[in-house]
Structure formats: structure tokens, C-alpha cells
Here is the input.
Amino acid sequence: MKYLLLIYSDPAVTPAPGTPEQAAATDHWVRYSQELAATGSLLAGDALQDADTATTVRVRGGDTLTTDGPFAETKEVLGGFYMIDVEGLDEALAWAARMPNITYGSVEVRPLAEFDMGLPS
Here is the structure.
């Protein structure tokens, strides 16, 4: 089954750039990504730029509206994702529990809905 692991963190507690803590965190993310890739389960993954670079788009009454920033104001912001293909939810949850930010952030685990729309996979 395919799952998306959505990575959320509070920027206020994320290690600051240029610090030894941030360098250690980066090393941890690299190791985690390499371990996940080595299992053959990693389909895709990437970090996102800061939430202040987001633009939210809505269409209401035929008008396209854009708003600077993410969809919702929250303490934790979406910082990245991994798309994985594993045996089931238990395995996806196990990978989420090993995420480097798990002690100061959270990981939302969502199964992908699969539709046959005739598109290449």
C-alpha cells in the first residue's frame, strides 16, 4: 500500500540554521532517508520551503482568490513529505515513529486513494 508521511514541525523549536543542532538534525534526516530508500519502499520525498512562501488558491463564485501563506494558521507547519510503498499501516506507522522530528513535531500518515484514470504511473 502507498502512504504519504506528512512532516509537521513547529518552527519555534526546529534547530536554527548554522547551529550544531541543525547540522546533527540534517545528518539524521539524511540517514533516515537512506535507510528508507535502502528498503525499496521510498517512492518520493522532499522538503518544502518555509510556510511564508506558500500561496493558497480558492475559487468562490467564479472568482479566483489567492492568499499569501498556508491554508490554515497553525503552530506546526507542513515541512515536507515522504511517499512510501509498504505492506500496510503498521509498517507506515513504524517509519513515521522513526522520523527525525518526531520528538518535537508530528507525522500525519495517510493512505493514498488509488483510482484508475488511465494516467501513466
In short: Residues 2-111 form a domain with the Alpha-Beta Plaits fold (CATH 3.30.70.1060). The CA atoms of residues 11 and 60 lie 31 Å apart.
